[in-house]
């Protein structure tokens, strides 16, 4: 009997050692270091959340938006932790987001340059030097900090993406990128195309 208990304990220890889950890493979205992989099977459901109403009849400071933008316009208001999207035909949406921490925020005008379903995350060498426990690559899956979708801005230096830490939405949590709930980023991903105008302001 003692032998069976000992064998069971050894098996449990081995499984625990192999089942590493990489939780939210504070510096994961520092600029650079991305390599992508093929899409993988769908994620399991994430916890329910109470989003800000996503469809709006108005946008703040609408006069700041360009009059004609073939791919529509994304307006990110960091002080409101909100991403507004206006389609090229005038339909408007609003999504709650997480934004960069103080000193890590970027403001200006850019565009969507590419999109990726189920992105792979590769921490940079400097990230792994700061945190040696980080793997060389995190494959698509529930432990991936980029979530199920990534929308790349500013020649790939900034991203709008999902997250494996939905509790960070509505806060200043990232190193500059914009995190969204899974349902929201998947919806936005289908709406926007490369060339979509993006404005980021306080």
Radius of gyration: 19 Å
Please describe the biggest sheet, giving its number of strands, its sense, and whether it closes into a barrel: 8 strands, mixed, barrel
End-to-end Cα distance, whole Å, is: 66 Å
The total beta strand count reads 9
Q: How large is the count of helical segments?
A: 3
Strand order of the largest sheet: 1-2-3-8-6-5-4-9
Mean pLDDT, to the nearest integer, reads 75
Give the overall silhouette. Answer: globular
How would you describe the overall organization of this protein?
The chain has 202 residues and is an alpha/beta fold. The chain starts with a helix and ends with a strand. The chain has helices at residues 2-18, 125-130, 182-191, and strands at 73-77, 82-86, 92-100, 108-117, 149-153, 158-161, 172-174, 178-180, 197-201. The protein contains 3 helices and 9 strands, in the order αββββαββββαβ. The longest helix is centred in the first third of the chain and has 17 residues, at 2-18. A hairpin with a 5-residue loop joins β2 and β3 (92-100). Residues 14-26 and 28-53 have low confidence and may be disordered. It has an 8-stranded mixed beta barrel.
